[in-house]
Amino acid sequence: AHCSKAFKDKKALTVHQRVHTDERPFACNSCPKAFRKQTALTDHQRVHTGERPFTCACCPKAFKDKKALNVHQRVH
């Protein structure tokens, strides 16, 4: 065992173990990057597609991931 972290289910443990093994099974088709989680790949692919599905309710700006939207919303 690499660390003493505990997880609620086997999937969460499997994903966490990739931190220790550096396994990155989710590869981008458009560049050499690869990711530990499917969701990280999905967010990354928006760099290539230009998709910005997270829109601000207060202004016309849109973002490729929810974290960027949350950071932006602090300006309002």
UniProtKB/TrEMBL annotation:
User: Which Gene Ontology CC terms are recorded?
Assistant: nucleus
Alphabetically sorted, this entry's keywords are:
DNA-binding, Metal-binding, Nucleus, Repeat, Transcription, Transcription regulation, Zinc, Zinc-finger
The GO terms describing molecular function are: DNA-binding transcription factor activity, RNA polymerase II-specific; RNA polymerase II transcription regulatory region sequence-specific DNA binding; zinc ion binding
Q: Where in the cell is it found?
A: Nucleus
Residues covered by the C2H2-type domain: 1-25, 26-53, 54-76
Instruction: Specify whether DNA-binding is a keyword of the entry.
Output: yes
So which domain of life are we looking at? Answer: Eukaryota
**SMART domains noted in UniProt:** ZnF_C2H2
- Which PROSITE patterns does UniProt cross-reference here? ZINC_FINGER_C2H2_1 (PS00028), ZINC_FINGER_C2H2_2 (PS50157)
Instruction: Please state which protein family the record places this protein in.
Output: Belongs to the krueppel C2H2-type zinc-finger protein family.
Entry protein name: ZN334 protein
Organism this protein belongs to: Burhinus bistriatus
